[in-house]
Amino acid sequence: MPNPAAPVSDRPAEGRSEFQARVHEWFAANAPRKGSPEDFSAVHIVSAATAEEYRAQEQHAISVTRAWQRRLFDAGLAGRSWRPEYGGHGAPDWQDEVVIEEQARWGVSTKMFAVGLEMVPAVLFGHGTHEQRATFLPPILRGEHSWCQLLSEPGAGSDLANVQTRATPVDGGGWSVTGQKVWTSNAGCSEYALLIARTGSREEGRAGLSCFLLDMAQPGVDIRPLRQMSGAYHFNEVFLDDAHVPENGLIGAPGEGWAVLRTMLASERAAIGGGTSARSATQLVGLARTLGCDGDPVVRDLLAQAAIRERTLDLLRARIAAGHAVAAAGPTTKLLYSEHARLSADAATTILGMAATVVDDEVSAPWIERLLFAPGLRLGGGTDEIQRNAIAERGLGLPR
Ligand SMILES: Cc1cc2nc3c(=O)[nH]c(=O)nc-3n(C[C@H](O)[C@H](O)[C@H](O)COP(=O)(O)OP(=O)(O)OC[C@H]3O[C@@H](n4cnc5c(N)ncnc54)[C@H](O)[C@@H]3O)c2cc1C
């Protein structure tokens, strides 16, 4: 009898359903169930009343995620499609999809590693050197390095062509970076950042931007947790004062930052569309059953609408995974996802009724958290309006 806790070894000719069964077996033997006391599927939603509590929560979240990522790596389940010289297995892309789909069913999450697992590879394969890939990719798969994104600034959010943070070449090689970034998720627990900075003049706009790999553990990087309107801490602002980037930390050539950024944002948008809320319809059905109202016609209507949205999102993602040409794929996925998350959280409050105001109840609490987080999903990774612009211009060919 095979040991389900043993690593999933490489069998290149294996079919999807056979691989799926083996992955399922491994998760059943190794992952906590959703709803069990060990469930950490929401650990990446870090939100705290004080800066100290926020830092502590962030450290807890990253250490749990590191341990889980390491287990996936040791089991041969991390980076199935990545090339062996970068820590992977050289398997077909669909095997990563299978692992992601299976993972979403259990009480686990690697979302704290989203930038490293989903955006850094796209950026380095599209624009980086072999040396950069060989240096930076394997530690991500092993759960050793976490990454964040230093893009947004107080004067540059949707309009990233307006980035003012400046990178200046220094004698002896490398770059000195000075400026201010804002809304940085996971800055306090990341070893490295993807950074966009200005190497040309302001007048050059996007042609004056360059993209860098920045080591976050240095004196020139000051991370300050940011208090939001709700009173909670969820993000950071990051002040860069003569922060150093070595010569090999530049991705592509100076002035190619906009092309790198487009690759990064496309992979981010596609990745966001696979987040935990993508399974909201299934969870709404569970909620209605728990409350005994799944026979109510109004509730059934809400459940049917959520199921249709979820199916649409699944089919779109399946088409993309199967290699079909989907115009504006990233923006469309991200927009569908943020709408699904918002409408499903609204539906949950209708189903919960007055119970939606009880914050310390174990049935309502996760939905209240989602309801409050849903507006943020409409902004992070580019706002809904920006996605609509991209779909109109790139997907439908409409004029700007
Ligand atoms: C959950 C979350 C996580 C985030 N994580 C990070 C991170 O890790 N790193 C990082 O760098 N940033 C991060 N951000 C910041 C995010 O990328 C920005 O908030 C977003 O790009 C919008 O920028 P802004 O806040 O400056 O709004 P603005 O760009 O000022 O936009 C304000 C409003 O104007 C609208 N608008 C702007 N331009 C147009 C246009 N051309 N057409 C139509 N409408 C327009 C917008 O849709 C929005 O409603 C995060 C944000 C959230 C909510």
UniProtKB/TrEMBL annotation:
Its cofactor is FAD. Pfam families: Acyl-CoA_dh_1, Acyl-CoA_dh_M, Acyl-CoA_dh_N. One of its GO terms (cellular component) is plasma membrane. Keywords: FAD, Flavoprotein, Oxidoreductase. Gene3D superfamilies: Acyl-CoA dehydrogenase/oxidase, N-terminal domain (1.10.540.10), Butyryl-CoA Dehydrogenase, subunit A, domain 2 (2.40.110.10), Butyryl-CoA Dehydrogenase, subunit A, domain 3 (1.20.140.10). PANTHER family: ACYL-COA DEHYDROGENASE, ACYL-COA DEHYDROGENASE FADE34. Belongs to the acyl-CoA dehydrogenase family. This is Acyl-CoA dehydrogenase.
